[in-house]
Amino acid sequence: MTLRAALLVSAAVLALGCASSLDLGKMREKLAPRGPEPAPQLRDEPNPDLARVEGLRAASGELRAIPLRWDASREPEVAGYVVERAPSADGPFAYIATLADRFQTVYVDQGRDLAPKRERGLAGGGLAHAETYYYRVRPFDRAGSVGNATPAIAAGTTAAKPAPPAGVQAYSHLPRRVALRWQPASDPNVTGYVVSRSPSPSGVYAELARIEGRHQTVYLDGELPDLGVFYYRVASVDAAGGVGDPSGAERAVTKGEPLPPTGLRVAAQTIGANTLRWEANVEPDLRGYRLIRKRAQAKEPELVAELPASATSATDSAVSAGETIAYRLVAIDTDGLRSVPSDPVEIVAAAYDLRADATAEGVRLSWSAAAQSGFREMRILRGGEEVGRTGEASWLHPGGEAGDRYQVVGVHADGSEAPPSKPAQAE
Amino acid sequence: MRRGLQCMLATVCACGALACTTPLERGEREYQAGDRAEAIAVWEKIDSAELDYASARGRIDAVAEERGQLIERYLQRGRYFEERGRLAEAVLDYRLALRIEPSDRATLAHVQELSRRVAKARAEGLALFRAAFARDDLAAARVHVSGLRVLDAFSPEIADCQRQLAEALATRLEASIARANDRLDAGRFREAESAFRSVLELDPQNVTARGNLAYIERLRAESAPAQAGTTPNPAREGIAPRPRSAARPRDFEIRAEGYFQNAVNAEASGDPLQAIRYDLAAIDADTSHASARSHLAALRRALAVQVAGLLESGRQHFQREDLRAALDQWERVLLIDPGNSEARDYSARAEKLLERLEEMGATPLPATAKP
Questions:
Q1: A109, A183, A348, B97: which could join A167 in a potential S-S bond, CB 3.0 to 4.6 Å?
Q2: Is pLDDT above 50 for A381?
C-alpha cells in the first residue's frame, strides 16, 4: 500500500469514527432514500393528528435481516414513514430509516446504520445472527412533522448461525493425508464450510480451509507426518458469512510407516555367501524389503537386494571369506513409506581357515572341511599364481618353502569361483 | 546483479548465524523439532571444559526425564486401551512410544503381535457384519459393528460399515416408531407396545421406545383401578380409550422418561454409574423429571462411600503415568459428587498431560537415515 493510500484509509477510518458524534438530523438526511420525491426535513414538532401506523409485522428467520411491512396510511397528508429500532421492547428506539412515500410500506432492516445494536462491534456492520430487535413505524406529514400517537411494536429475530454439518467422518490410515467427508447441510442458506484442525481434541483449532458450496462435502488434508494424530471439526457457513458452531471433533491418524522388520538373523553361511532370515512384517500392504549391507571397512551402507513382500530370507553372495559385515533390513509399503531399519546383525563371513606349514617335503596346506564341502575343488595360489587344484581339504606343495604366501579359491560345481582366502604365510 | 548480491548477502548471513550457533543451541533446535534423542546426542558432545557444559548437563537430565515420562505415558495408555479391547488405539500408542524409543524390542514385538490380532479380528468381524447386513439382520449387524469400532477405531472400512448401518437403522427405526405412534394414537396399546419392543430389538437403549413403553404402562396402571371388579381392563386387552388424566406427553418428556428407564435398567444390571449418566441425561432433557432427580440423589447417596477410594485409586494410576485410567476414576468421583474439587483439579491436570501427549502425536517424526 502506498503512503497516499494509507493516508486516505486513515482519514476514512477517522471520519467513520467521528460519525457517532454527528448530528442525528444530518444522519436522517443521509438515510433518506433518493427517489422522485425527496423526503422532507424532519422537524422536531410532532403532529398529534396523524393516526398511528397499523398492521406492523416483522418476519423472523432471515439471514442477518429483518423484513418489516405495515398497512399504508389512508390519510393523504402522510408523506412517508420513519422506521425505528430498539434492542428491547422498552427501547430506546432510534431512527434507522426514512421512507418518503405513503405507499412505501416495506422495509428490510439489515442494520446498515449507526443506531445501537446488541452485538458490539457491529454498529455499522449489519445485524448479527440470532438477535431479536423491536420496531416501530411512525408516519410523518409533508411538513416533516412525525406523528406522536403511540405506535405498535413488532419484534423480529434474525436467523441463527447455521448448524454444524452432520455425519462428519475422518478417514484414517491414508498415507500422509486425512480425508474428511460429511453430509450436506439441509439448510439452503448454507453456502459452504470451514474445516479446522487441532493436534488435541480440546486444543486450539486452526482453520485449514473454507469450502464454497453446500454440496462440496469432502476435504483432503495433505502433507501430514506419518502416524500423525489429528482432530478435525467442520462448521457451516451461511450466505451472510456467518460461521456456525463446529461439529464435534473427529479423530484421524495418518498411515504409519511399516514397522521395522524383526528377527533378522544369519540362517546359513558358506564361503562367499551369507544367507539371512527374518520374520514377515505384519502390514497387509507391504511392497517388499531392502536388504542393506555395511562392510567393516566401507563408509556407506549399500543395497544387497530388493525383495518382494513374500520373502523372508535372502542370500548375499558378494562376501569375502572371513569378512565382517553388518546387515539391516528396511520394509517398504505400497505407498512408498519406509520403516526404520531393523536392528543390525553383524556377521563374520565363513572363512577357509587356511594354514600353511613348511615341512621337509614342501608346504602342507590345509583348510576347514566345512569350507571344502561347498566346492567341487580348490585352486591353490602362491603369490597370486595357480600352483595346483584339489578336491581334498589339504594339499602338499612340494616346491614350497617357508615364507611363501598362499591363497585358496573355492570352485563351485558350475565352475564359478568364491572369493579367495586371506593369504597365509608358510611357517 | 542486484539479485545476485542479495543471494550472496543472505548466504553470508546464514553461514554467520550457523557459525554463531553453539552446540547448546543446536541441541535446543533438535529438541524443538521433536528429536529428543538427537538433542541429547548434541549436548553429550559438549566438553566438560566448555562454558555451556553445566547447562547442557541440566538439559540432558531434564529432556531424558521428559523422554522417559512420555514413553511411559504412551505405553500406559496403550495398555489401558489394550485391556479394554481397543487394540488399534493400543497399537497407535505403542507405536508413538516406539517413535521416541525405537530400540524397545519388546514393545516392537508386542505391536507386531497385536497388529496381527487386529487384522485377523477385523477380517472376521467384517465378514460377520456383512453377512448379517446382507440378510437384513440389523440387530446382529449392530452388535458386530459395535465390536469392530471398539477393536479398530481408525479403520475406514469399519467406518463405512458403521455409516451404512446407521443409515439403514435410522430408516427402520423411524418407520417402526411412526407405526408405533400411530397405534398409540389409535388406542391400540398392545400393537403399539409390540412395535416399540421391536424398536428395542434394533436399538436396546432407544429412549423414544423406552419412554413410550413406560407411558403405556402408566396408562394401564391408571385405567386398572377404574375397571377393577367390573369389566376386563381394556388397556390390557389391547384397545382402550386414553384416560383423560393421561394426556400424551411431549417428545422431550418421552425422551426424558426413556433415559430414566435406561437408568433404572442400568442400576438393576449393576452399573450404578451408568445409571447416573442416564439420570443426568433425563434431567437434561426435562428438568422437571422428578423421578430421575430422586433416583439420581439416591444413587449418589449410596455411592458416596466410594469417593475416597476412587480418588486414591486415581492417584495411584496417575503416579504410574496411567493417565487415562486415573481420569476414569476421577470422572467416576465427579459423577457421584460433581462438586468434588480434588477430583476436578486432578482431572484437569491429567487432561492437560493427555493433551500434551496428543500434541506430540501430531508432530513430525525426527528425520531418520533411510538407506
A1: A183
A2: yes
pLDDT in the model for residue B361: 59
The angle that helices B272-285 and B251-268 make with each other, rounded to 10 degrees, is 170
State whether A331 and A365 are in the same domain.
no
pLDDT over 90 at B27, yes or no: no
CATH: 1.25.40, 3.90.1580, 3.40.630, 2.30.30. Which one for B271-359? 1.25.40
Same domain? A150 vs A196: no
CA distance A147 to chain B (A): 47
Contact between A102 and A80 (Cβ < 8 Å): yes
ipTM for the predicted complex comes to: 0.70
**Dihedral angle over CA of B230, B231, B235, B240, nearest 10:** -110
Boundary of a domain, candidates A132, A157, A182: A157
Question: Is residue A120 in a domain?
Answer: yes
**Å between A275 CA and nearest CA of chain B:** 20
B65-to-A234, B61, B318 alpha-carbon distances in Å: 38, 6, 16
Q: Is residue A2 part of a domain?
A: no
Contact A169 B108 (CB under 8 A): no
Give me the number of domains chain A comprises.
4
Instruction: Measure CB to CB from residue B361 to each of A173, A229, A301 and give the nearest one.
Output: A229
Cβ contact B105–A262 (<8 Å): yes
pLDDT in tens, A98-154: 898 889 999 999 888 777 777 654 445 788 888 899 999 999 988 888 887 778 899
Q: What is the DSSP string of B223-268?
A: HHHHHTTSS--HHHHTB-PPPTT-PPPPHHHHHHHHHHHHHHHHHH
Q: Say if B154 is an interface residue toward chain A (CB within 8 Å).
A: yes
Report residue B87: phi and psi, to 5°.
-70, -40
Asked whether the predicted pLDDT for residue B33 surpasses 70, the reply is no
pLDDT digits (tens, 9 = 90+) for B175-226: 999 999 998 888 888 899 999 999 999 999 999 999 999 998 888 887 765 5
Domain range for A78 is: 21-157
Taking only the tens place, the pLDDT of each residue in A405-415 is 999 998 988 88
Find the CATH number of the domain harbouring A242. 2.60.40.10
For CATH 1.25.40, list the domain ranges present in chain B. Answer: 271-359
The answer to whether residue A260 sits within a structural domain is no
C-beta atoms of B95 and A284 within 8 A: no
